[in-house]
Request: fold
Amino acid sequence: MTQKAIFYHAGCPVCVAAEDKITEVIDRNRFELEIVHLGDAPKRIDEAAANGVESVPALVIDGTALHINHGADLSALR
Amino acid sequence: MTQKAIFYHAGCPVCVAAEDKITEVIDRNRFELEIVHLGDAPKRIDEAAANGVESVPALVIDGTALHINHGADLSALR
Reply:
């Protein structure tokens, strides 16, 4: 059974670099990875915040937010 | 052939939480993961810095440092 992982980003250079690495290292046999561009899907900003995301890029696994480097604060995307 | 990934941390609560998730998601078939506690191995702080690490916890892959959340600045460990 695969678990769900969500990578939230905003298309910034820091986000793209992190996305490259995360998509490279994550075990796709065990994790289903969804990539969400919050600039394109602003309605999902609240969902990201509810998942504990404070800045992007961030990876949410099992309800735990891992902030990976720092591109932009979530508040700057609203 | 496996690639090398190095997770640097300092035993802090933020580090431990990140370590749990990173060791869970990383594809061990493609990545050999080394975990380095910089408190126990202070001689490797310079190596971490050379890999672009500015704070812990951080994951270095292919020479790219991903800072995951924020536990402590590297300078605080010297």
Remarks:
- The longest strand of chain B covers residues 64-73.
